[in-house]
Design goal:
12 strands; about 270 residues; alpha/beta; single chain
Length: about 270
């Protein structure tokens, strides 16, 4: 069996953010119209490391797309000088079941998650939105910012990381990258970062809400991508209760999206 191996740089060179956003929109449309099979992902906890490995298969009818992703999220990896997320994607021939390729999954994961927020921002955010806030300045935060800037004319960005040096490095790296503006402000808190933001992206492993509902600018849009375990929560219950919220998969979100599960259990939504 001969496999194509696609590395991280190949993926970054092959797919632009605008192309990724278009692909994600198409995939979500197929999912909502019943033309995609996406079982609830399996999860293997590694309690000693507080990490999780997820197995995520998907098939798009009519598109010939069949693949399986294995992604590990280990929040303490930064202490070891390693990325929080490691992943690999296996592409399978939809007619024969033959494995076709192995693709390094870190870039795909970040690109796809960013593109999902880009699609949501394009469809749900006011056209006059010009200010963004990025909470969490890891790999995911980078593609969140790129995606938002792809679909709206962002003029100013606020960023926050509890480790200020990481936020400053993020700002230096991302300013004027592609459509990202040069005006990137490093905030001293998440609340400060979001206070003027039209668009907020949360990409953290926080166990407690990152900001208060009262900190939000009226009409703000939140792309919440971080919480995926029962002990994680980025957005407080009051904010969810007062918001219109749109999900990719209702089944998956009612099983895994803690930001929605908590207020639902409390009867707030």
């Amino acid at each position: 069996m001969k496999l194509i191996v696609v590395n991280e740089s190949d993926i970054r060179d092959a797919v632009s953010m605008s192309e990724a956003i278009a692909a994600v929109k198409d995939a979500f449309a197929r999912l909502s119209s019943g033309k995609a099979i996406v079982p609830l992902r399996s999860r293997i906890p590694a309690a000693e490391s507080e990490g999780t490995t997820l197995i995520m298969p998907a098939y798009l009818e009519g598109a010939g797309s069949l693949s399986v992703k294995v992604v590990s999220v280990f929040p303490h990896n930064a202490e070891k000088g390693l990325p929080t997320i490691h992943a690999i994607v296996m592409v399978v021939d939809a007619e024969t079941g033959k494995p076709l390729a192995l693709m390094a999954g870190e870039s795909i994961t970040a690109l796809r998650t960013g593109a999902a927020s880009g699609a949501a921002t394009d469809l749900l955010v006011r056209r006059d939105a010009h200010t963004a806030a990025i909470i969490g300045t890891g790999v995911q935060g980078r593609t969140q910012l790129q995606a938002v800037c792809e679909v709206r004319e962002i003029r100013r960005v606020f960023v926050f990381n509890p480790h200020r040096d990481k936020a400053e490095a993020f700002a230096a790296e991302m300013e004027k990258r592609g459509k990202v503006p040069g005006d990137i402000v490093v905030a001293s808190s998440a609340s400060e970062a979001i206070s003027e933001a039209d668009i907020i992206c949360t990409a953290t492993t926080s166990r407690t809400p990152l900001f208060r509902n009262s900190d939000l600018k009226p009409g703000a849009h939140i792309n919440g991508v971080g919480s995926y375990r029962p002990d994680m929560q980025e957005v407080d219950e009051l904010t969810v209760a007062q918001s219109k919220f749109v999900v990719d998969s209702l089944t998956a979100c009612l099983s895994e999206a803690v930001d929605i599960i908590i207020p639902r259990k409390k009867g707030l939504i």
